[in-house]
Each structure stands twice: as C-alpha cells, then as structure tokens.
Design brief:
Chain lengths: 386, 317
C-alpha cells in the first residue's frame, strides 16, 4: 500500500513538472492567410477595422489596382468578400465607421475622381454612396472628430487638397496648399521613385490636423488648425520622410521616419505645430533592423488597466517586429518578432475590443504570390510578451 | 373375533406388532441403520458444498505479454487551416487531405486477466500504442504549387479495461481427485468490449515542403517538430473485438483483433496556435480530430494459480 502511494505521488509530481502552456480559445487567437489559386492573383492589404460582431473588415488592392473587400469572422475565418467593378481603383488605406456601416474612399476611372463607398456588413453589400466631382486622386481619409472626416486628394493643378466632410459625408470646406503645375505628373514620378506614406489625421479633439503629402518643397508633414489653415511643417526630402504618426495621451506623438535611408522611431514627443522644422531634427532612436522601404505604424493597445504603445515595422530579413513601450515613461518594455520563411510586410496594427491586437500584413508566398495575412494576439499573450 | 389380533389386556393384537414387539433386537437394528444412513447422508452434502465453493479452483489470474500492429484512421470533427480562401467558391480548397499510407503503428505491453467464471474474464493492460497518420496541404496555381506533407508519429501509454466473454461449454465444477476432471477446451473463442485511457508519451511531426514552378520540382526542406504542446495529453476511447485463446501446455496464446474509437479530440483545441514553427514554416494548424484504429495483437499469458506447483499444474477453469 505504501509503495502504491509513493508511485502515485511520483506520477503527480512528474506531471506537474510539465512546462505550463498558455491556452487560448479560438476567438482569442488566430493566424489567417487568405489565398487565391487564380493565376497571377495579387493582394495588397490596405486597412483593417474591427466590426460589431468581433470580426474584421479588410480593404485590399488587387493586381490591377482593383478594390477588394474581405470580411473575416472573429475566429479568422473567411465569411464573405467582394471585388468592385474594374472602374474603381486605388482604394485609400483607411476604413471609417459611422453608425452600423463602414466607409472607404477609392478612385473612379478614367480621371481618378474620389468616390465614397458604404459597406453594409449585415447585408454583405458595398454601395457607391457619393462622388466628389473635381476632387481627384484621393490619397488619405480619416476621422477629424468621431462624426466628421478628412479627405486628402491631389489635384492636377494644385497638388494637395484637404477637405472636411460632415457626418453625412457632404463637404464642409476644402483647402489647397500649393500651386503646382502638372501636379499629377509630379506625384506619379515621386511614387515611381520611392514608396510614399500618405496619411491624414487629427488630435486634441480635432483642434490640430496633420497630413503627410507631396508638397511643392518635398514630401512634408503639414500641420493645420481645425479649419485646415496651415500652421507648420516638418520638412523632408527625397531620402528623408515620415512614415507614420500616431497621436496619443496628452498631445504626445509617436513617429516612424527615415533620414538618409536610416530608420528612426520617436515616441512621447510633443511636436511644435507652429513653424517649420526638419525631420532630421527629430531625436529618435535608430531602428537598425527596419527595412526603410516598407511601412511602419504604431497603435495604442489597452491591456487591463494599462496602455501600451506598440510600434510595428518590417525588418530587413522579412519579418515583422513588434516593440512595446510604456505610454507614460516612453521606455521600451519588450519586443517580439513575427514571421517565418516567407516575407511579411506590416500594414496596420489595431487594438481589439477584448484587449488584444490584430496585425494586418502582406505575405509573399512561393516567392511571388502576394496575399493577405491577419494575425490576432490575445491579451494573455501580450501580457506574456511583456 | 379375528384370531390374528391379541389385545393388550390379553385380548387380540396384530401379528406384525407381535412380531416386532417380540423382536426388540430387530427394532434396534432397524433404528440403527436409519440413523447411520442419515449420518452418512449429512457427511456427503458438506463435501459437495466444499467442492462447489472452493474459490481457489473457481477462478484464475493470468499475466502476460502482448504485441501487435495497428492501422490508424483520423476522424475529423472540425477542420481548421491557416490558409483560407478569398472567395466562397474556393472554400474547401485548403482542407487537409488525410492519406491512407504511413498509418501503420505498433502496440506492445503487458496484460492482466482475471477469470472469475468459465465464461467471463475482466482484464486490464498497460501498453505502448503508436499512432501514425499523414496529411497533405496544397496551395496551387496554374503554373506553380506548394505542397506540404505532414507525417505524424504519436506514442501513448494505454490503460484499457475490458470485459471478455468466452464462447465455451460450461463444465461441472463438482469433481475431486477421485473423479475425472472435466476437459477445458484447448481453443476458446471470445468477444470483448472495453474502455481505453491513453496518456500521451510523445508526439512528433515530420513536415516537408515541395515547390513546383513551371513543372520543375524542388524540395525546400524536411523538418522535425515536437508537437506535444498542441496535442491533448489524455484521451479516452472505447473498443470492441474478438479473438481466441489457445492452450499451449501450461500457458496460453491469444490472438485478437479490435476496433478502437476515440471518444474525445486527440488535439488540444486551445493550443492550436501554440507552435510558431509549424505556422511560420508550414502554415499548419491541427484540425479537431479523434482516432479510429484497427489492431491485431498476439498475446502470451501465464496462469498464476497452480493446483500443484511441483507438478506445474495450474488451475484450469
């Protein structure tokens, strides 16, 4: 009897020595790659947004710049998808939400007029809602306040045009900032030469507007007030530019930028919105392993009672690196690599309702097939990384 | 008046009565025989009872070894894949294709049997069971394709508990050294049913990637991975089967075949994404599945209880 008890105790002790494994439910963690067997199919993801049912809408561009929308379930499973007509191209990488529906901007051929589309997730439909005649080559689209929006286009004769859209998506005002002859040719030449990160946004409840665009003097970050009147710039050049800007906290900013083909990151920074400065003057830290040609982006991810700034960028070896920062002190807390044998390019990082985060990236399979990759990190895994 | 009867008062009585009454010795003999017979009768009943209730002779315990082969099949409960379609028309394209090859495994261990009746046996085994299976995953376009091959090799410690019914004629138990011992059939077929409890010992996967571009194939890698973390550490199953027991001298040979059905998932649903290497290199996550298997086993069992150790005469029931 004594020997039996010793044997049982030994088995119990042995079983408890096994390494603890964190387990997740199917809605907490998933990793999905969306493939297409069609010859020559190519998918470049542009944006992702979480929907009410815990799923995700993904906006992407096909090989011929055609617009593609994909709905993914909360478990990372395919639900539905739709390709827009071939006359709609070059979707702008931002989906916004108003009420029960979601909206994005694309161009309409032949003259690249900005068109607003409405996604009805319940009915699985995408409808052309409004055409902004004379506003061409949409480059960026974002919220100004929760119910108003900013649309940045590039006019043939003036270059960058910033417009404010009301909650019904009617235009309230529009401003130009330069007078550039054959601006569209300048834009095309710039995009052929280097990768450009066009974006627009605001902080301080819409009091400060910023946009990254090709100006007369170069690819600058421009500041404006809530009426769109320019107040300052962060100037750059062909080899220096800002890749992303993330406002958080009390007017703090996090930015990825490049100077002389070297990548940098700065956080917990208060940028002067009045006057001019140069991107080289930003005192960020070098990101030795970031591939400057690819995107980078940051997001505030709330986990428990704390918030963390997560900066994501594509590395030189084709992986994605996630860096976690304390939003109060700005100190780097942890980092993690994502990816394997096929190269990844990060597109966007967003927090989720259940205090996790989702990474949208482009993955290149079998050397040539560009596909959409969506990965969800649950809260428990984030805490484990930290 | 009947002249045969003489009364007690000197009157008439029966002749028999006279005979008996007058033969008191005979009466005594008659009474003694009756008593003797009844005594003898009582002694014989207690002997029968002793023979009938002798526990030593009415049961047997066997210990033995068993070994054999199994063929494993995968019963998919829910399909999961890292690769998903972009259009509803392609749903199902990226499901794993389970193969019918590389599915043979081995099973070996020790067995314990308790035969408490001529027809009924309960048993328990401790055995090592190997489960092997293979599946393929493909991503194909017209001009190129990528194929991943996954070979799995899992080993469990099994603890089956079963009930066995022997198909045989029941012999009388009422024999002793003075009577002829009934013959136990040399070959006894049986049927059995039981539950199986399995503990995962180790789990390995060998995965390889084959790329085909415009008709030219290239194997990019073959790798091995420990997949303990993504498999369930315990599973339960049920099995039915049958076979036969062959007497070979004082021990027995058994040949049996069983069909086994897992009653729970063999994979760990919550740890589906726990293995980063499989996801990053082979875009692989496990389906939810249970095992089915067919096994053929040969056993050698030895009785424990002996009537005579000197003569090596086991209790045979």
């Amino acid at each position: 009897m004594r020997n039996v008890a010793i044997l049982i105790l030994t088995l119990v002790l042995f079983s408890s020595c096994k390494e603890e494994l964190i387990e997740y439910t199917p809605t907490e963690k998933f990793n999905s790659i969306f493939d297409d067997p069609k010859e020559g199919a190519s998918y470049t993801p542009l944006d992702v947004i979480e929907t009410d049912d815990g799923g995700f809408l993904v906006l992407a561009e096909l090989a011929n710049n055609q617009v593609f929308v994909l709905k993914v379930s909360s478990r990372g499973e395919f639900l539905w998808s739709q390709e827009l007509e071939s006359k709609f191209v070059r979707a702008v990488g931002n989906i916004v939400r108003q009420g029960q529906n979601y909206y994005f901007i694309a161009s309409s051929l032949p003259d690249y007029t900005a068109v607003l589309f409405e996604i009805n997730d319940l009915e699985q439909t995408i409808a052309e809602l409004r055409t902004y005649t004379a506003y061409r080559r949409p480059l960026a689209f974002s919220n100004l306040t929760p119910d108003t929006y900013l649309l940045m286009t590039y006019n043939d004769t003036t270059g960058t045009v910033l417009s404010k859209l009301q909650d019904g998506f009617a235009m309230e005002w529009a401003r130009k900032y330069d007078t550039i002859r054959n601006a569209h040719e300048k834009l095309e030449a710039f995009e052929n030469f280097s990768r450009a990160d066009f974006f627009v946004g605001s902080y301080n409840a819409g009091a400060v507007i910023y946009f990254n665009s090709l100006r007369a003097g170069g690819f600058d970050l421009t500041y404006a007030n809530n009426l769109g009147i320019e107040t300052g710039t962060v100037s750059s050049s062909e080899r220096n530019s800002i890749s992303s800007l993330t406002p958080y906290g009390n007017s703090l900013l996090a930015a990825n930028y490049s100077v002389n083909n070297q990548s940098y990151f700065i956080n917990n920074y208060k940028l002067g919105v009045n006057g001019s400065t140069a991107v080289e003057e930003l005192a960020g830290v070098i990101l030795q392993d970031r591939l400057p040609m690819n995107k980078a982006g940051s997001a505030i991810v709330p986990v428990g009672t704390a918030q963390y700034l997560v900066n994501a960028y594509t590395t030189i070896d084709g992986r994605i690196k996630l860096e976690f920062y304390d939003v109060i002190t700005g100190a780097k807390l942890a980092w993690k690599y994502m990816g394997g044998i096929d190269p990844l390019e990060v597109v966007k990082i967003i927090p989720t309702e259940d205090q996790g985060m989702v990474i949208l990236s482009k993955i290149t399979l079998a050397g040539a097939n560009k596909r959409i990759n969506l990965v969800k990190f649950p809260k428990a895994e984030i805490l484990d990384i930290l | 008046m009947n002249e045969h009867y003489i009364n007690f008062d000197g009157s008439l009585k029966s002749e028999i009565f006279i005979l008996v009454f007058d033969n008191r010795m005979m009466l005594k003999y008659f009474y003694s025989i009756f008593l003797l017979f009844s005594t003898v009768f009582c002694q014989a009943q207690s002997v029968w009872e002793k023979l009938n209730k002798d526990p030593f002779k009415s049961s047997q315990v066997y210990v033995g070894l068993k070994a054999g082969a199994n063929y494993t099949m995968v019963n998919v409960v829910n399909r999961h894949s890292l690769i998903k379609p972009t259009h509803s028309s392609n749903e199902g394209l990226y499901e794993k294709k389970y193969q019918q090859i590389e599915n043979l495994g081995t099973i070996y261990g020790i067995t314990f049997l308790y035969q408490f009746d001529q027809k009924f046996v309960v048993g328990a085994n401790v055995s090592v069971n190997q489960a092997r299976f293979q599946y393929l995953q493909e991503q194909t376009t017209a001009s190129n394709s990528v194929e991943f091959t996954h070979n799995h090799d899992l080993r469990y410690v099994d603890f089956p508990i079963f009930f066995r019914y022997m198909f045989r004629k029941v012999n009388s138990r009422f024999w002793s050294s003075s009577t002829r011992k009934p013959t136990v059939p040399g070959i006894i077929p049986f049927a059995q049913i039981g539950l199986n409890f399995s503990v995962l010992l180790n789990a390995n996967k060998e995965y390889s990637k084959l790329t085909n571009q415009n008709g030219i194939e290239s194997q990019e890698f073959i790798k091995n991975e420990d997949i303990n973390s993504i498999m369930s550490p315990y599973t339960i199953g049920a099995f039915v089967g049958g076979g036969a027991r062959f007497r070979v001298g004082t021990f027995y040979l058994t040949a049996e075949a069983n069909f086994r059905q897992g009653l729970g998932n063999a994979n760990n649903e919550k740890a589906r994404y726990a293995n980063a290497n499989l996801q990053n290199e082979a875009y692989d996550v496990m389906d939810d599945f249970s095992f089915q298997s067919v096994e053929a086993i040969i056993g050698l069992i030895f009785p424990i209880k002996y009537l005579s150790k000197k003569e090596f005469l086991p209790v045979e029931i």
